[in-house]
Amino acid sequence: MKVILVLLDGLGDRTYARLGHKTPLAAARTPSLDRIAAIGANGTYHALSPGRCLPSEMAHFLMFGYTLADFPGRGLLEAAGEKVPFADSEVLVLAHLCRVGIDSNQRAFLEQGRDDIVGDRDFLSRFYKQISAYEYKNIGFRLHQTGRNDAILAISGHVSPDISDSDPVLRKSPIARIMPLARTKEPDRAAKTADTLNHYLAWCADRLKDLDAAPGAPGPALNPNFLVTQRSGRKKPIAGFGDKWGFSPAMIASGGVYQGLATELGFDFTRVRNSANPGKDMAERIQTAIDDPDHDFIHVHTKAPDQVSHRESPERKADVISALDTGFAGLLNMLETKEKDILAVVTADHSTPSDAKLIHSGETVPLAMAGGAIRKDPVHRFDEIAATAGSLGQLRGADLMHMILNSTDRAMLQGLCLGAHKRAYRPENYPAFTMKKQKGSRQLS
């Protein structure tokens, strides 16, 4: 049986009076998603625990059955996905250009964030090149521009990822001084990493101010004059998804962080482009998953609901969800005709409020599972509220993967172990007992 996990990034939301006190998902027209809910089992899901606000990469990591202790950091995942060269001992940090102002107490505060800075990639590369290499106290810094206003900072030497962030994200907030984390297991390295990174950022500010009068610039007031950092990480030994769960996995997604996640967890990865038609994009990705002859666990991803939540309105988010729903017709047809043996799992990684100060919020998201050995329940709508009446209840973290194993008849009886490693799934290949007589053995009388 093939598992197709379709993840609608940032799908969950809050209710809004102007939508009749519905969420954008509940207000959207979703006949295909509703039908998948009606022929399957439903519930709610949170990758950690309700109320915890998760970034996408961490939610995915937990969803795939891993723990926060194993998480290598967003910086590492972005670096791996964007093919930035780095050594296993180096610390990788997300970075981008911004513009800061100075208040009466000489504190720098955020005036323009990542997406507010004007200029295309070529224009901003001039600024990135000015601060691309630095060394202080035997700690090296290499800055790699990976997008229009995105970069990875690789830090080498006796360094630690256990440091805080400088980027406050919200405008008018003070830029944060980087600090070593209080409970780090490597306090000396963390303290040195934080100290030298603060020096590097100050050096960057000094270098960038000299570019204010650059020829062809849109105006000094709009030029970036500071580099901010966040979400550091470092390589960790992580068990591959296939070994952990017994599937041959693949991922279809856009964005470097998902390619990095696939690289670190052992998924075969297909990177796709997002068009102006999210329904068409979804239909093509699902069809690719259905037709795939080489993998039995395929993760299909779209960023569309999350992106519209950050940039527009609840009404616009409902429109995007309605468009995405049209892309589920092929999957629904397969489930109803049973032409192929498929377990379909449709959910989200987190909630993204489309009218709030929070970047992501901590509400649960809807979950529908159809096909396989699934108990059909009375739920007939795919949304955050209807799902609470479903037979799956509320699942968290690795619960999702265990339910997938159970629903595909792959789950191992708890306590039974075939081979040297205890596994959640029943392995197909394990050392077999043979009837060969062992050398040097003899029968006792």
TrEMBL record:
- SUPFAM superfamilies according to UniProt: Alkaline phosphatase-like
> What UniProt keywords apply to this chain's record, in alphabetical order?
Glycolysis, Isomerase
Reaction catalysed by this enzyme: (2R)-2-phosphoglycerate = (2R)-3-phosphoglycerate
Residues of the Metalloenzyme domain: 1-406
Top-level class of the enzyme under EC nomenclature:
isomerase
Any Pfam family from its record, for instance, is Metalloenzyme
Q: Which GO terms describe its molecular function?
A: metal ion binding; phosphoglycerate mutase activity
Q: Which pathway does the database say it acts in?
A: Carbohydrate degradation
Q: Which GO terms describe its biological process?
A: glycolytic process
User: Which EC number(s) does the record attach to this protein?
Assistant: 5.4.2.12
Q: What is the role of this chain?
A: Catalyzes the interconversion of 2-phosphoglycerate and 3-phosphoglycerate.
Q: Which family does it belong to?
A: Belongs to the BPG-independent phosphoglycerate mutase family. A-PGAM subfamily.
**What name does this protein carry?**
2,3-bisphosphoglycerate-independent phosphoglycerate mutase
